[in-house]
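Subject: for your reference before the review

Hello V.,

The reviewers asked for a structural picture of the protein, and I figured it would be easier to keep everything in one thread rather than splitting it across files. Below is the amino acid sequence we used in the manuscript, unchanged from the supplementary table.
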Amino acid sequence: MEEVTAEVARVDMSRVDQLFKGINKNDIQRPTGQVDILIGTDCCILMPNKEEQIGNLQLMRNQFGYCIRGSHPLLEVPKLSNHGIVRIYWASGKIIPLNDIHVLDRDSIKDKLDSLFDIEGPGKQTTLKCGSCKCGKCAIGQSQHSIREERELNIIKSGMTHDEESQQWIVNYPWIKNPNNLPNNVNSAVSRLGSTEKRLLRNSLEYASAYDEQIMDMVKRGIARKLTKEEMEIHSGPVHYIPHHEVLKPESKSTPLRIVFNSSSSYMGHTLNDYWAKGSNVINDLLAVLIRFRQESIALAGDISKMYNAIRLSPLDQHTHRFVWRNLETHRDPDHYALLTVTFGDRPSGAISTLALHQTAKMYQHIYPDASKMVIRNSYVDDILQSVESVDNARLITQQTEKMLACGGFRIKHWIISGNEKCGSTLQSQDSGESVEVDLDEFAHEKFSE
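And here is what came back from the structure prediction:
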């Protein structure tokens, strides 16, 4: 090393010695020039000890004598030298005239250093790209994600598998805590079921029956299944029960009463949602989607039916998604059920469903390039918005989109196409097989005004 540190400048101590009793200016005279040796804390026996203190000025002493530490109005310290800047230029091989050296203010130096660290350092933000290219222009690649979010997103992706035979996605949830630490909260679940039943029946029998019908409809549609006693006895993995309640949606004609599951419910300090990674926000920017929605003269909108329920859970995740129900027969023990699909309200459910949708589109983009591009760029949660040049193009791309998404287990509930004399368009309903006419104004109010 060429030198230990910069040379020590002269400090006027002539007015400081009078502050301390029995001390003259020669005792505390500060040496100048080069520093020959630095004494570190590993030689603690040589470290000076405080003898006396006046304000923020301390008199220190060790084997070598006295020294002063701190600051005081009577202590005149010269301004710091700027020779460090000169050495930087000299090290670079340049000879800089003294008149060309400018002292920068502190704020300017800080801004330049921050910029240097942003450029040279690894940084904490990453630009996420799609899994198949390095372009960075894909829908997900347009957002900034933290390193933690990107790692969580990779965990989610690694747990997703596409079953070619059933044409459906199967997911292992991204556990960031050991699921074996989850307590079996069956007694709490049964107790909460009793409270739920009393509340439902207190409202009205018709209201309670509507709740029961929704539970049974979930079983019928393959969203949940009843567990047998034998299966419950032989299962050796983690078990956790999720409380459920209803949400009223009177504006919905299909399901005015919906069942939701509360994965954020706490039991003995354990919350199921805390055991999972969330991942980053992979949903398309709504403003960009709406701007592209107005580019062409013909608009079309599609609604994916029960998007979350299109993705199946692994066996482990099914048993950590148990719940109890007994068809309002309060005199008997409840039946035990397990959810089979991704559940709205689970911490990673949003990222899982969007990734599965986009990945389905990428898998079949060589067959349906236009439909794939539309889903990847112009979908927002379970809605697909697009504008095209003609009604014929709209009908063609809707047909291609339905075929493509069916390969991933997704089903379009209905399409709406503008451009006819009427505001809506008469299309074939995928639910009933009959022709239905949908009012575009009503749809827009329901989807975008909430």
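For the response letter, the relevant points are probably these. The first strand starts at residue 49 and ends at 54. The chain has three domains: 1-102, 126-169, 179-448.

Happy to draft the paragraph if you're swamped.

O.
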